[in-house]
Amino acid sequence: MRIRFIFSQVFQGLSRNMAMTVSVILVSFVSLLFVGSSSLLQMQISAMKGAWYDKVEVSIFMCPSSSSQARCPNGEATQAQIASVDSFLRSDSLKPYVKSFQMETKAQAFKLQSRLRQLAHWPQCHRRHDAGFIPRQTG
């Protein structure tokens, strides 16, 4: 008997204060929406961090002799500067973070850059777009 009375009083109070009831429901919905979306976002960030954390590549470009950049006031990078970067990458402080690295000479970098430029302007790449087409290497 008391339960019926309690429920009838609750229903009367809610129906009398309809604006307050709607605002409480909306605030509860929005707050739970934020909690759920932040939880899903945190799970996605953790998954992406696990997937990409060990796949980071860093490129270090030294100043060439023909550079007019403000970052290169002393001109071309000296052998001492190149050796300093090499020893820093091999140091014990970076050992846990650097899995491997390779140094390229200017000639090697130029050869790779010209090869990539050739592939970018290769006319067959623009004509054929099916998945089975893989260009063969030349040269």
Helix count equals 5
The global form is rod-shaped
Report the portion of residues in β strands.
Answer: under 5%
Classification by helices and strands: mainly alpha
- Please write the string of helix (H) and strand (E) elements: HHHHH
Calculate the mean pLDDT score and round it. 80
Number of strands: 0
In whole angstroms, the N-to-C terminal distance is 93 Å
Topology:
Elements: H1 2-16, H2 18-52, H3 79-90, H4 106-120, H5 123-127
Task: List key phrases describing it.
139 residues; mainly alpha; 0% strand
Your description of this structure?
This protein is mainly alpha-helical and 139 residues long. Helix content is 59%, strand content 0%. The relative contact order is 0.04.
In brief:
This protein is mostly helical. Helix content is 59%, strand content 0%.
